[in-house]
Specification:
It is a single chain. The chain contains 7 helices and no strands. The chain has helices at 21-32, 47-55, 59-69, 73-83, 90-102, 107-117, 128-145. Helix 1 crosses helix 3 (59-69), helix 2 (47-55) runs antiparallel to helix 5 (90-102) and helix 6 runs parallel beside helix 7. With 146 residues, the chain is mainly α. The longest helix has 18 residues, at 128-145.
Length: 146
């Protein structure tokens, strides 16, 4: 069975407007089905935890919901709303989205990712969202296409 590298970017939001939530749902869903690539956690300590904190959902509760119900994305968002009484804290979501977009990897991580994908580190790509995209796409290509 193929282990899938998630390719939904952290820089996209679903209807609730929460950046990274679609990616977190995809990773948790792949993990629940035993298909998530071993290099990826279902819910890690970085953007995953930031997202869960912003929406006020416990990591284990979220992962258990995904594993038990295997929801489509919109059902997952509705479940989140149901857990939060029908609405999310707009200020927390705005702060979260800003933090996701503004986060930069350290120099060593940036350099390693760029070297792995064959791009010179000129300082033009600093943000973690785009660096992570490049890393995911390279891994996907190596695993599935090359």
């Amino acid at each position: 069975m193929s282990q899938i590298i998630p390719t939904i970017t952290s820089g996209i939001a679903g209807p609730l407007g929460v950046l990274h939530l679609p990616r977190l749902w995809q990773k948790a869903s792949l993990d629940a089905a035993g298909k998530l690539h071993a290099d990826y956690p279902a819910a890690g300590a970085g953007f995953d935890q930031m997202t869960l904190d912003a929406i006020g959902i416990n990591r284990e509760v979220f992962l258990d919901y995904i594993k038990t119900n295997k929801p489509c994305y919109t059902a997952c968002e509705q479940w989140i709303l149901d857990q939060k009484g029908g609405s999310l804290n707009a200020a927390a979501i705005d702060a979260h989205n800003h933090a996701v977009v503004a986060y930069n990897h350290d120099d060593a991580t940036r350099g390693a990712i760029l070297a792995a994908v064959g791009i010179a580190d000129t300082g033009a790509i600093l943000d973690a969202v785009n660096l992570n995209n490049l890393e995911d796409w390279q891994g996907f290509h190596k695993q599935e296409i090359a």
